[in-house]
Amino acid sequence: MITKKIYHAAIYVRLSKEDGDAKNAAKAESNSISNQKNLIRDFLKGKEDIVIVSERVDDGYSGSNFERPAFQMMLEDIKKGIVDCVVVKDLSRFGREYIDSGRYIERLFPALGVRFIAVNDNYDSLDGKDQSDEIIIPFKNLINDAYCRDISIKIRSHLEIKRKNGEYIGSFTPFGYQKSGDDYHKIVIDPYAAGVVQDIFKMKLHGMSQDGIAGRLNEMGILPPAEYKASTGSRYQTGFKAKEKSEWTSVMVRRILTNEAYIGNLVQGRRTTPNHKVKKTVLKEECDWVRLEKSHEPVVGDREFEIVQRLLSMDTRTAPDHDGVYPLSGLAVCGECGMPMVRKTSTVNGKTYAYYVCSTHKASKECSPHRISAEKLEETVLSLLKQHISNILELKRILSFIGTVPFQQLDIKKLEERRAKKEAEAERCKELRTTLYEDMKDGMISKEDYRELHAAYETRRKNAQLAIRQIDMEMEKVLKRKSDGFAWLDYFTEHQNIEELTRFVAVSLVREVRVVDKKNIEVMFDFADCYREILQGLAGAGHDVSVDESGKLDIRAKEAV
Prior knowledge:
- By secondary structure, the protein is α/β, with parallel strands linked by helices.
- It folds into four domains: about 5-160, Rossmann fold (3-Layer(aba) Sandwich), CATH 3.40.50; about 175-310, Hect, E3 ligase catalytic domain fold (Alpha-Beta Complex); about 330-400 and about 490-555, no CATH class; about 405-480.
- Helix content is about 50%, strand content about 15%.
- It contains 19 helices and 19 strands.
- The chain has a five-stranded mixed beta sheet with strand order 2-1-3-4-5, with helices on both faces.
């Protein structure tokens, strides 16, 4: 008497996120976990040679790869000899990856003596393969793979459209924001967290290092981003968490200080995966990022953000026993070699003296020391700054009388000159293209040279036309512009009663301090180009503009002849 083999089966069911989110409710129900199980159990009721030993469920996992927890546990059961039969609803539930699906069904399972059944596809490996199976099964796997690829392309395209429309598609918002209750794809300010972000920017502007800011936040008991999100009920997870309970670090602080989201810019699509089968993320080229400016309410001003980016590019160190850096750290440079000046101290007869010295001289003696007292340098910069603010006040007084029309006319004239040159360039390229054809007909140039030169001239012509359109847009902006173009003057005048050179004032108003020697110090103020343009505009509008030996600005209307 022949004993019939009893197979020990694992029921395997899978449902991806895309299946669960299907718009068609009937389809979603047919693909549901419970329905898959019920269909398989009903099928196995009449199979006396099959005993169910386990049910493995991957809920919310794509079929594009086999790195699924329940599937891997089923494989372990197969290796241990617990399972020798796998039953699925259909081939698509088993997997949508053509190559690996075929490898399991046609090679690995037969080699391990595992029976494979796909109920709806009417496939049972125990029945043996006929010619139709050899064609149909790989073909169905290929269709499932193509379906997965098609879904991936559609999802990527859909997400790209959402990004370009300014919709926020991230799972979690940046610290300081939360998702709007009215629109899940819109972010709004979280008052508490936004206040912390603003404090971080203020601390940086007042000279604190990232490490110092992190330490201050930890001392104050401020929850870091991950802990704060968890406290609000969010299921936020991060790969940066190194401890059971995270704390503020300099890396966290820098990440906040460099995030454009805080000035209202939405930057998305920084990372992607090579394709739907490879889940490893890669960083895209910056030119491929989707950036939308002023898409939501900012937490900090553009001016603050710009200054902080400048500070982060400086190589400055917090002084020992100090919370912040000195007022001119990173701003003072050698007037000869251009390298930063470093602040040093020396003690003579029990008295400590602070001075700045060229870093090149300190490191290699390849430049002169350019040594100058720290007190002397700060006094000089403060004095020059006071004079510059006084000049700015005079400029504002003059501008309040003459308005902005003369400057608009001056800017329009410059733009018109640029436009005329580009128009001439476009017309010249058009003429050269016509001449090329005659040269080719006369045998002066070959067809290959003709095509190459023709394409080059066409590219130049198109670039010139693009430049003309951009100039037209600039002209339109100039005509619409009012006194807002001189808003930077207020950055200086709000410090008109300054008595001390603080770090905040220095980084807000000074770009660079060039030290040649004790008597030759040049201060480059912020918005120096704008300052010069106003003086040139006043001169062009019929005013005499002069500066005396003390640096005082004198502006007078020219007398009529």
